[in-house]
Input
Amino acid sequence: MDNRPSMPGTSLITDPPPRRSRRLLRRVLVTALAGGVVAGAVLTLLPGERRQPVARPPAAGPQAQAGTQAQALTTVTYGVPAALPGLTALIGRQEARVRAQPRDARAWAVLGSAYVERGRRAGDAADYPRAERALRTSLEVRGTQNSQALDGLAALALARRDFPAAKRYGEQALKAAPKQWTAYPPLIDAYTGLGDYKNARSTLDKLLALRAGATARPAVMARTAAVYRDRGWREDAVAQLTDAAAAARTPAEQAAWLAGVGQLAWERGDLPDAQRHFEAALRLDPDQGAALTGRARTLAGQGRTSEALAAYRSVVAKQPKPEDLLELGELYESLGQTGLAEEQYTRMRTAVRRAAAGGVDEELLVGRFEADHGDPWEAVERLREEWQRQPGIEVADALGWALHRAGEDEEALTYASVATDKTKGGGVRSALYVFHLGVIEGELERYGPARRHLQEALRINPSFSPLRVPVAREALEELGDVPDEPPPSE
Output
């Protein structure tokens, strides 16, 4: 059944590219790559100390510079996406302000929030310790009822993938300012990361009841879309994000929401539509990381391998995020270029250490990597601890797959079922999650469910992974056709 929305926001996009034919990427054996992850030392920037120079935006006139900084201040204050050049300019201005007025709590909070946003946008976790120092200084100056600093600390915890801390700061911010909408989105994300979907939905209801103003409304719609997507309501999620993009007040904000529409199109397997949205986002904001990666992923899914490799290499040269390096490595591996794949995996480990030095929890990504390319039992150990700390759907899926790779399929089925069971929060329609479930069921000789789930994975997105799609197709060939008799009753 095709669940695509009939109007995926194409009114915001011009010059759609022509459709290209798909071709399957070649399957290769998965190579075992050993190697651990070692956390490095945390880098900090103390107020008043000499700091290393940061990249500055291209020179512009005073009026343009003032407008860019004003936009960045508005977006940081209201928790919506901002452009990198404006963030860098705003950080420079706020650093000068807090040196001149070290008791200005709001200036410290704005500085910390700008650091968080720049680190997130640029994929540079070195900004996170600086953000924490600035935000804690703001709290020290004004006290624990400082909702702006608490919002910033919640956003910082989310950027570090620390959902318990994000929940703690988000609840404090909500208590300090229950009528302020910016406290709600980080708390929704925190509840989602902890697998607390009931509280995530009730918090969204409270946010919608606030009736945020025009500046905040696109961000609220985008947060609504994320919750709808997690519940499996894809058409509603697309509608919310499309409306958010239409109502956005800056190019960077509109680009972020268009990239979100592109991601939803990718997840449902509509690659041309995904590509149109990613390219539209990049025309508005060339630094939009999700759109850069999404375009590369979409090119690979369409069989435009040379273009995809070039796009990925451009992404990791500018923003070497661990997850992007892992994707590039797996694309090389699917093409039989194992040496180049190992090179990306080595770079991924370096990027993980750099992120860990900034306080980022990369256990989920490392667990996924070890399950497929390294030591599955190390993956199980890491992911069990992650599940105890923050039991979200992503962790359930990864832990189930790691257990399968370690040969523990009975236990693996428990977690894979959690990740795909709507009654347990797994409402998101993910081809990868369903593929994992189908493979595990096949190993347990549950051939009927395995066949149905592998077929479903390919219906959801026939190009969801260059390494795993050929595995799914081969497994279906081995399982044969679906029998004519109906499945047994419950």
Summary: Residues 1-67 have pLDDT under 50 and may be disordered. The CA atoms of residues 87 and 288 lie 14 Å apart. Residues 362-490 form a domain with the Serine Threonine Protein Phosphatase 5, Tetratricopeptide repeat fold (CATH 1.25.40.10).
